Amino acid sequence: MLVLFNKPYGVLSQFTSDSGKWRTLTDFIDIPDVYAAGRLDADSEGLLLLTDNGNLQAAIAGDRSTVMKTYWVQVEGVATDDHAKQLARGVMLNDGATGPATCRVAQSVSEPWPRVPPIRVRKSVPDSWIELAIGEGRNRQVRRMTALVGLPTLRLIRVAVGPWRVQGIASGEMRVITDNEAFAALRS
Q1: Of the candidates 27, 70, 39, which has an alpha carbon nearest to the alpha carbon of residue 171?
Q2: Which residues are designated catalytic?
Q3: What is the pLDDT of residues 108-118, one digit of tens each?
Q4: In terms of Cα–Cα distance, which of 152, 155, 149, 86 is closest to 125?
């Protein structure tokens, strides 16, 4: 099975925690033997996939997987087409160059759900949104990429992983599909 979970802000992408600082998936998901296919940091939100099928996990998030992950990124500053072009070409991070991506400045984004707690807002500094799709999944990659081009990330929402979208799944809620449906979606 494949669980499509809309992970809220402040939730770890795992079922246990040593620190107690963040909530865990245990607070939301009561399905035995499922594990995250990829991760989202506690301070990121949106679509997290979980599965009990090792082949499906490898297809989605294994070392050879090229499944694209799409993010809506609220950044500090005014994002321009030049910023989007830089991010799409790839940037040089301290752990190497990022692969090509797709990126566009979002002309109008209405928040899909309110974040709790809300992001900090500075009246003298504007913010804007970009949509960024990457095939990699390095640690805090999107945040590091946007910072490198001068646009620190304020809010990061994963809206899609491959063919699956978070649309229609409320924050903290999930939808379950069968392995057959999941593999069929990956092939299409």
Answers
A1: 27
A2: 41
A3: 777 788 898 88
A4: 152
